[in-house]
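Homework help thread (please don't just give me the answer)

Our assignment gives two proteins as sequence + structure token strings and asks us to describe the second one. The first is just a warm-up. Here they are:
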Amino acid sequence: MHITLPSLSGAVLIYLLVFARTGAMLMLLPPLGDANVPSRVRLMIALALSVALAPTVAAAYPTTAPKNIMQLGVLIAQEITAGVMIGTLARVIMSSITIGGTIIANQMGLSYAESLDPTQHGQQGAVVGNLLSMLAVVLIFGANLHHLAIGAIAGSYHMIPPGSSLPTGDMAELAIRIVSSSFALGFQLATPFLVFGFAVNAGFGLLARMMPQLQIFFVATPFNILVGFVVLTLVIGTMMSLFLNFYAEQMAAFL
């Protein structure tokens, strides 16, 4: 079967362009775009969302067939670019929990133990960061905040209307705000561990000066890990509450 350009008009063209934007966003949009979500599941979600969304945004798309393959490629490239831009910014929001987990792992002495992080598209990360990332995904679905990710797809048509030039200034300002907020939250989540780490290291540093013959490393490392897990047990609920509030607040910018 051959599909010619004149046949790409009306509903067929609209569904194709909507799927291009939706599919590009779902590759990156957390938590639906995480690497542990099977590709077929993401494809089916993208197709379902495209079918549901196309009638509501049909007026924003051209209904006539493109004159040549170049025009069709430009239309598809614009939609994919819009989807990737918004999906990348949403992915940065999710990275805040990974930043906090990496700082915590460095403070506890577990940064040398790295494993595959399924929420970061196959990249390796510290074990504490992986734990917090997977816990964040579970809580997002448990709190029904994944609806914000679906709403961001519809909201992208207000931020970047089809066929219009990319609002580079507004997108750059939004990117700066999201990146700075994500780093700030990561350090905020790790603050209790930085405080106890300073106290522990200062105490063992004083002990090393008083008892030079003592092998401080072999004493301090297990103690640091033990205290770190105790602190993590005490504050993990507050940490995840802060992250969920941050996730909901930042994702609301795409609606």
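The one we have to describe:
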Amino acid sequence: MGPARIRNLTEEAMALRASLNRFLMRGDRKATVSRAALEALPLPGGTDWRWRPGFMAGQITPRGIAAPESGTRLGDRAGVWHDCTERALILEQVQNPRATDLSPYGLRLEVFGFSGSFLSISVDLPAEAMLGLTRNHILRLETALVLERPMNVYARLNVGHGPNVDELLQMLRGMEGGLQSQQVVEFDLAYTEMNEKRLERIWLDLIFEAPRMSAVEMRELFLSRHMRADF
């Protein structure tokens, strides 16, 4: 086969593998338990959407990436972004260790020598997150993180509409080294100028400041949305 034919078949194979991974994840017993636990969580009144990324609920393939280029994907939702030329990073899916963890899996990011100026993990939200979304909605994020040592961590919601992207930034506070920190932050879409009729993409960035020689474990991450209360 010629090079062009090989490239086309490779693209088809990658798309097929992604579809098969999603199918296997949906049928995974742990993923089923994770979805049931998410449905049972008490969330604000009027919650009309809740979601946990697949890499928290079921096993993905491959399980990890070492020395990733910026923009490298892990699973079909997560990506790592950085400007570190040495790429001394490892991002991998791990099993959560505690029986009380709602998600059976998490992500672990190990950082060795880091000379870059930024490092983040991005999570793409599904298309369902945009159905009926308005500026009267609040998007709620709950995370559980374990940091090897203290560092500043930020959550940034990005809303792409037409040629524009609106950003909402929240700092995750009270992060201590060696301890699991449960965090809840809310993004009020009233503070954006998003065009509700031109929504194209929504994604979340977890941004790590000065991450050199450290590790971060993400043991929980889920999002939900509800309407702002009327006064």
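TA reply:
I won't write it for you, but here's a hint about the kind of observation we're looking for: The mean pLDDT is 85.
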